[in-house]
Design a protein that fits this description.
InterPro entries: AsmA-related, DUF748
Radius of gyration: 49 Å
Number of domains: 4
Protein name: DUF748 domain-containing protein
Number of strands: 29
Structural class: alpha+beta
Largest sheet: 25 strands, mixed
GO cellular component, one term: plasma membrane
Organism: Winogradskyella aurantia
Keywords: Membrane, Transmembrane, Transmembrane helix
Strand content: 35-45%
Shape: rod-shaped
Length: about 725
């Protein structure tokens, strides 16, 4: 009987055990089917599982070929090949969640954004919805404890399709591993993460985090991140065809998860082969490499400190017209509306409590830079090329009172520019600029010479030395221009060619160089002030002033007052120059010697009627002196009576009476002889003093208007010798 009962118990136990084993075997299948069939109610989306396995001895669950579908139940939202979850259920008794392993391999997540809606918004709504049947407990929950180990994600891929910009972004081979996270640990947990970029490169990070107090530090390495992956986003703000380059960097982040915005970032970054192209597929911004040292980036305190920033072979294409430029057009700055300005003001008002922006750069350097400049400000296209641009700066800081920046470059592959810019970073209307330009070709700026001066300067080596101070917007600029081997051609139908050539001839020193001092004054805050126009207008006035008033340029050669060398004035009856006249003739000869190729002409003007009156009085006066023995100039009454007695006319003044008494033929002959004698004596003196002189005294044409009412005078005319005007390098003719 006892044996029968024992067998019966054993049989029941075996059956029970068999049932339990069967239940344990089929339970995963039942659970799998239940989850699949009720997934919409459980998690909000339809899912599918390839298989579900559970190891009861190790409490390990394995899931294979998981798929979560989109709302349309056709497209896949999330999938993975394998998931392993290893729990310790007994630890739940002590209110401690213990996870010995969490492993996912081959995770694929497809995210889509259209307008402002993501393809997972319905899941967020499902899991954040409040169940009215739930009763919120007011009892204080016991502290949650956890021990999480071996958290690993391997070979994951993330795909983000932004329908708004028609751009898909892919992150492949994403992996990370976290050894352990404890609720009461004192050491930081370590998490290593890595994923690959398309078409190459990778992102790798090491994260150490303390789950208790939230303190963390992370090291991030970015290798060969191709920037064209972001071009669709850049195109939202810039009208471009291409945004490309390769980013490399090593960055460290220190902070706290409880206040992540206060994290501090430092490290180094490098961008190589950077390029942006406009809608015409022309590169307007490029760089072979851009290197930056991030010393301390503190976003919460608006503090950004850089070490060295170095740009190697940067390139800029800058095109300007009368109202805008290509950068304003590309980055849509021309569309800046009044409403945006008002919005900005509101933001600034609201942000008064925010920390003041601080920035610092230990050193800014540009190596082998290039720039192509183009404009149509004159109505004609002007293109200019700057290369081998080098820039080096002192430490730059928003708190600096003064910064010095040094630059040098080549101008159109020939001329050199060196400059030193001193500036107050907090007041840009206060600066100092010292600049030297050498071996610059004037022909490069013919378009501007045409526009502002009215002439094309064809040939010439330009040297420019400038010292400029701007104080509160007021510019005080001293500019010295030295031009070598300059020549010109006219662009105004021949009206100005010779005067301009003559002006440059006058401005040349004995070495053939033109030295000009061009001061510039103005207010930078005045929208009517155009500094470029000021410089050109001042230069034009210097040149045209030399042509219209040559003696002002020549007088300095011999140290005389230019006002004394406009003309030589004689008495109507003079035939021989005075000592004062000889002194002036000597100075003119000296000018001719100092200014090789100078042509000086003494053009004689005299009013014939006034001269005949003077000659008639002089002739009769000498006759009066012979007859009376008295000087007619001293004995005016006696001489007047003498004239009236000769002419027998009382009502006529003595000048008219004298002219009437001597016949007109005689007076004309006298005038001719007197004038000829004066010219002959002047020319004789010039030749005797300097035999090879080209200075001549010549008679003007009698019909010249300048003769009317004129004194007996010689107008001093300055010009170039004809051979010099035709060929400035030719030798002066010998007489």
């Amino acid at each position: 009987m006892k044996m029968f009962k024992s067998k019966k118990r054993l049989k029941l136990l075996s059956i029970s055990l068999a049932i339990i084993i069967i239940v344990m075997i089929v339970s995963p299948l039942i659970v799998k089917n239940y989850i699949i069939n009720n997934s919409k109610e459980l998690i909000g989306r339809q899912i599918n599982l390839g298989s579900l396995k559970y190891n009861y001895f190790s409490s390990t669950a394995r899931i294979y070929d998981f798929k979560m579908f989109e709302k349309n139940e056709k497209d896949i939202f999330v999938s993975f090949d394998t998931a392993i979850v290893n729990l310790e259920p007994l630890r739940f008794i002590f209110n401690e969640k213990n996870l010995e392993q969490f492993y996912v391999k081959g995770l694929i997540v497809n995210t889509v954004l259209k307008d402002s809606t993501f393809n997972f918004d319905d899941l967020i709504a499902f899991h954040t919805a409040v169940d009215s049947s739930e009763v919120v407990s007011e009892e204080k929950e016991e502290t949650f404890k956890y021990d999480l180990s071996n958290l690993e994600l391997k070979d994951a891929s993330f795909y983000f399709d932004n329908k708004n910009v028609n751009k898909a972004t892919e992150i492949e081979d994403f992996s990370f591993f976290i050894p352990e996270i404890l609720w009461d640990q004192t050491q930081k947990s370590n998490a290593d993460l890595k994923f690959n970029f398309k078409p190459g490169g990778y992102f790798k990070s090491t994260l150490n985090i303390n789950p208790v107090d939230g303190e963390f530090d992370a090291k991030i390495e970015i290798n060969q991140l191709y920037l064209n992956a972001f071009d669709a986003y850049v195109k939202q703000y810039a009208d471009i065809n291409e945004f490309s380059g390769v980013l490399n960097g090593q960055v460290e982040i220190i902070g706290n998860t409880n206040n992540p915005t206060k994290a501090i970032v430092f490290g180094t970054t490098e961008v190589t082969d950077f390029s942006m192209k406009d809608r015409n597929n022309k590169a307007f911004l490029k760089a072979n490499s851009v290197n930056a040292e991030l010393k301390k980036m503190d976003y919460s305190n608006s503090s950004y400190e850089f070490g060295a920033i170095e740009l190697t072979q940067p390139y800029i294409y800058f095109e300007m017209d009368s109202i805008t430029n290509n950068f304003f057009q590309i980055f849509k700055l021309d569309d800046y509306s009044e409403s945006e300005t008002e919005a900005q003001v509101e933001v600034e008002v609201d942000g008064l409590s925010e920390p003041e922006l601080f920035y610092a750069i230990d050193n800014l350097k540009v190596n082998a830079g290039l720039m192509d400049y183009s404009d149509n400000l004159t109505g004609n296209r002007f293109d200019y090329h700057l290369n081998n641009i080098s820039i080096d700066s002192d430490s730059i800081s928003s708190k600096s009172e003064w910064i010095d920046i040094y630059a040098d470059m080549l101008l159109n592959n020939r001329g050199t520019l060196k400059s030193k810019l001193g500036i107050n970073p907090n007041a840009y209307d206060n600066l100092k600029l010292d600049m030297v330009i050498e071996n610059f070709l004037l022909s490069d700026i013919n378009i501007y010479a045409n526009y502002y001066v009215g002439h094309s300067i064809l040939v010439g080596d330009f040297y420019y030395y400038s010292k400029s101070n701007i104080t509160n917007g007021e510019i005080l600029s001293e500019n010295q221009l030295l031009v070598k081997n300059v020549s010109v051609e006219n662009t105004k139908g021949g009206l100005f060619s010779l005067p301009l050539k003559f002006a440059l001839f006058l401005l040349k020193d004995k070495n053939g160089d033109v030295n000009l001092n061009v001061p510039v004054r103005g207010n930078m805050n005045d929208p009517e002030v155009n500094i470029g126009k000021l410089v050109w207008t001042t230069l034009k006035n210097k040149i045209t002033g030399a042509a219209s008033d040559p003696i002002s340029s020549l007088a300095g050669l011999v140290g005389v007052n230019p006002k004394d060398y406009k003309e030589l004035v004689f008495e109507y009856t003079d035939t021989i120059p005075t000592e004062t006249h000889y002194e002036k003739l000597d100075k003119l000869l000296e000018m001719e010697t100092e200014k090789e190729g100078l042509k000086v002409t003494l053009e004689h003007f005299v009013d014939p009627d006034l001269q005949k009156e003077a000659l008639a009085i002089s002739t009769l006066g000498q006759q009066y002196e012979t007859e009376s023995g008295k000087n007619y100039l001293e004995d005016e009454k006696g001489f007047e009576k003498y004239i009236k007695n000769l002419t027998q006319v009382d009502s006529m003044n003595i000048r008219d009476a004298a002219v009437m008494h001597i016949d007109d033929i005689t007076l004309n002959e006298l005038s001719k002889n007197y004038n000829s004698a004066l010219l002959r004596n002047i020319n004789a003196y010039l030749k005797n003093t300097k035999p090879d002189t080209n200075i001549k005294a010549v008679a003007s044409k009698t019909e010249e208007p300048d003769n009317t009412g004129s004194q007996n005078r010689f107008k001093i005319n300055f010009d170039m010798l004809t051979v010099m005007a035709d060929d400035p390098t030719a030798e002066k003719p010998k007489n």
